[in-house]
Design a protein that fits this description.
Elements lengths: L2 H34 L5 H32 L5 H27 L5 H23 L6 H23 L6 H25 L13 E2 L12 E14 L5 E7 L5 E7 L3 E8 L9 E3 L23 E7 L4 E6 L4 H4 L5 E7 L6 E10 L2 E5 L9 E5 L5 E8 L5 E6 L4 E5 L2 E2 L1 E2 L6 E4 L4 E7 L5 E5 L2 E6 L20 E2 L10 E14 L2 E8 L10 E3 L4 E8 L5 E5 L4 E6 L2 E8 L2 E3 L4 E7 L5 E6 L2 H5 L3 E6 L2 E2 L12
Parallel strand pairs: 1-34, 2-5, 4-9, 10-13, 12-21, 23-26, 25-33
Antiparallel strand pairs: 2-3, 5-7, 6-8, 8-9, 10-11, 13-19, 14-18, 14-20, 15-16, 15-19, 17-22, 20-21, 23-24, 26-31, 27-30, 27-32, 28-29, 28-31, 32-33
The chain binds CU-O-CU linkage (C2O) and copper (II) ion (CU).
Keywords: Membrane, Metal-binding, Oxidoreductase, Transmembrane, Transmembrane helix
Protein name: Nitrite reductase (NO-forming)
InterPro entries: Cu-oxidase-like_N, Cu-oxidase_C, Cu-oxidase_fam, Cu_oxidase_Cu_BS, Cupredoxin
Amino acid sequence: MSAAALIALDRILVILVAVSWGFAGGHLLLSRAAVREGRGAARRAAWWSAALVALALLATAGRLATTVALAGHGWWFAAEKALLALPLLLPPALAAAVLSLPRLLRGHFGPLTLIFPLTSAYAAAAGVVVALGMGYPLSPYLSVVLALAVLGGAPATWSMLTRTGPPGRAWRVAGAVVALSALAWSGLSMWNARLPSSLRLASAGSVDVTALRGPADATRVRRFTLTARPAVIRLASGRGVEALTFDGRSPGPPLRVRQGETVEVRLRSLLPDRGVTLHWHGYHVPNGEDGVPGLTQNAVREGGEFVYRFRADQPGSYWYHTHETPNRALQAGLFGMFTVDPVTPEGFDEPVALHTFGGALTVALADAPPADGLATRTLSPGTPVRLRVANTDNAPHTLGVSGVPYRIAAVDGLPVTGRTLRDERAQLAAGGRYDLVFTMPSRPVLMSAGAAGLLLTPGVGAAPAPSAGPLIDITRYGSGGTEAPRRFDRSYTWVLDRLIALRGGVPRLSHTVNGQVWPRVAPALVKQGEWIRFTVVNRGGEPHPMHPHGHHVLVLSRDGVKAAPIWMDSFDVGPGEVWEVALRAGNPGVWLAHCHELTHAAEGMTLHLAYDGVRSPFALDGHNHPE
Ligand code: C2O
Ligand code: CU
């Protein structure tokens, strides 16, 4: 079974185990009371209790099996079950099978019959808490608290079962002490998890991010001004959508420059209710130009401005977007395409943005409003075509081309050499880009992404059906031509999960990295020149398109299968998957890294790479919300 299926099965089993032990324990207590008072038939009650205990044992055995199977996919998937949940549950469950069941079948409801199923019920309840609140690694405090609760519950229950009168004073005092300390403990952890009103993430170091800026004295400068303001945009169908825009447009004005030029973009804000920045997604800008509020600058407020300047040395397909409350503001329209040409583009060479406006997936070309439906262009046969498709949404999109064989010539801006695809499709991660290339044939070609698409037609012929071909694995598609280093200077593991965590001091369902939420996730410390290996593990049920700023990573393997290898800046770690990627630390700074499903990023799945010796004067506060 796949890790994703096992994870889903385990979630069901955790509940089944808790419910069945709970019912077994409850039924035993009720039957015991009834039999004692001579109200019930001991035999029948006993059979029912025995059946419930047997069901609970079965569910427990199932959980043991899924845990063993999950451990086979990687220890990260099984550790908290193998080290905590099952060790608490298996001993009382085993005793229930060996000691309680035979007694029960003889109609005995003595303390020895009841104590083990009841203790199993406590352990199963602790198992639910583990499943909801503890991923990988094990949290020591919660482990101790849960272990004490189960280990203390057993003797307390025993004393309750063996005495006849009401509980003695000692037990009442002990109960109160336990309840009070649990309360105090949770209060204290919530207090500790609170965030200060202003938090600096990198306060020590000899280099300030404000010194890591683009060239001030360049000669070939391309100047642009972008003004952020709310506007109603029109989709191709005529439908109006309230949006946040650059210059009244969304996508914003396409920025297209020649490799080697210096880009200077003056960002102005007319947004009344939120700040704005420009982040150059995938571009290796100097850190001070990265547009992350609270790390590399303060968010630009209404009436304010910020000037970005960097050399466009990397050719390829990129995009820009705001990084202040991006989950809302980017989705509402504050983004645009950024293309750097190594030579004069030939043929039909266009950025294509896939973005969902008002619930409709649209295809936006540079010169037209977003098409909610099919965008159409007429091209003469023989025209070289390069579609620079960018996924600016939160979810992955599946791209297909029908009517012509094609190649993916670049992934996340960087060239790849791969085979020709015939009716095969490729999934594009949130934030990612594929350059699709082909020569225009003498019949229509359809590039499709779900219900949206771009129809290129020579003027005659019927549109082909959207491709429904098999999916390729982009990590094995083509080579970026780089070999992975033999040894790494450091290694980090990011275990991604969906847990109840203390976000800003309040327990909330969150998206976690190593059990923590932003800004409490430990940063990855790196030194200039190092090669770092990241192992990224997805324990959840949704894909996580991970995006480190300022760098591409070299994908080494996906689920243990060696990659081509390939460079990416947004890589989609699917449910139950394990990716190994390598990062070369060549761009000093304090760099955000996060899931580009931006609701996940906002709910905790954000962290940063901290270069040794770099400090930032900026702070997370009431105005800066990079997540
Ligand atoms: Cu498009 Cu922080 O990224
Ligand atoms: Cu995610």
